[in-house]
Amino acid sequence: PIILGIETSCDETSVCLLKGKDKILSNIVVSQIDIHKVFGGVVPEVAARKHIDFMYKITKQAFKEAEITTEDINAIAVTYGPGLVGALLIGLNFAKALSISLNKPLIKVNHLMGHIYANFIEYPNLKPPFIVLLVSGGHTMILKANDYMDFEIIGQTRDDAAGEAFDKVSRMLDFGYPGGPIIDSYAKKGKDIYKFPKPLYNNGYDFSFSGLKTSVLYFMKDNPNAKKEDIAASFQNALVDTLVHKVTKYAIKNKINDIVIAGGVAANSSLRKKLSEFSSKLNIYYPSIEICTDNAAMIARAGYEKYIRNIFSDLNVDAAPNLSLKEL
Ligand code: ATP
Ligand code: MG
Ligand code: FE
């Protein structure tokens, strides 16, 4: 089948045409980073309006690049949550309109399942059970994938998400938005010499990053001459160490050798490097950088999984800003 994927949950407008399991015919991602950068974060109302600007244009462009017509697609997969309600509604309503006018079935997709499924594009032979470290702008979780559509939550953050912590610390350091990639590159020029706390390090599988963020803030007040590169490296190290420690501990303890990382923070070079140190014991999977952050290819891929199971959605489906992984 050919699945049209649509993603508008936050500040990326994206459309993909995916053939079969893993052949990306086109995947257009328009990022609104430059628009939101001046505000230091995503402005929901602005994001929604920008999605309207881009939605139709990039859909046409996606078909053109894929060299197929609307007749050739078999279904339309669209993110219905979690995310910003106004932003979600643009993609969802566009998908509904296409579904009616083209007479093609609609498939609602959970954005978080999409992040996990980005890995299936890269690794077609990946099979459950596996462990997932889902680290994004809004979520931080360790999951056990018992089956293709069955994700059990092992641990999650009690406050800030990993990506959110990167973004907030970046703002404190005056690096700008989005913080993850900027801190990642500054950290390469710095040294991990400041010992920031690693909350809940040896305490179960939940996370808490708000205290780490606050301690960076106090440290900066007390040490105005500390090098920003060193602060970035030390912060990143404390956070990444905690992620790696918990997820590898769970995998080893439960004898599941495959760890899949997903979400925007999966692009982090230090996270990839530290996990690769376990490669003699564990198999580590991560998507290529382009499909770590929000994109429609991952949505189309998750949609494909529902398509082959004949799981379609009716046109009453509403945007679900707080959707959990229990509901796919
Ligand atoms: P969610 O998927 O939870 O709804 P989101 O869609 O906003 O949230 P993603 O698009 O998955 O999140 O990821 C964006 C986040 O990833 C941002 O917080 C960004 O700072 C972070 N990020 C991107 N690249 C890197 C990197 N190299 N290192 C660390 N963090 C990164
Ligand atoms: Mg984004
Ligand atoms: Fe996301």
From TrEMBL:
Binds 1 Fe(2+) ion per subunit. It comes from Tepiditoga spiralis. Transmembrane segments: none annotated. GO terms for cellular component: cytoplasm. It is an enzyme of class 2 (transferase). It is found in: Cytoplasm. Keywords: Acyltransferase, Cytoplasm, Iron, Metal-binding, Transferase, tRNA processing. CDD domains: ASKHA_NBD_TsaD_bac (cd24133). Its cofactor is Fe(2+). Residues 23-300 form the Gcp-like domain. One of its GO terms (molecular function) is iron ion binding. It comes from the Bacteria. Fe cation binds at H111, H115, D294. The gene is tsaD. Required for the formation of a threonylcarbamoyl group on adenosine at position 37 (t(6)A37) in tRNAs that read codons beginning with adenine. Is involved in the transfer of the threonylcarbamoyl moiety of threonylcarbamoyl-AMP (TC-AMP) to the N6 group of A37, together with TsaE and TsaB. TsaD likely plays a direct catalytic role in this reaction. It catalyses: L-threonylcarbamoyladenylate + adenosine(37) in tRNA = N(6)-L-threonylcarbamoyladenosine(37) in tRNA + AMP + H(+). GO terms for biological process: tRNA threonylcarbamoyladenosine modification. Its main location: cytoplasm. This is tRNA N6-adenosine threonylcarbamoyltransferase. Substrate binds at L134, V135, S136, G137, G138, D167, G180, D184, N268.
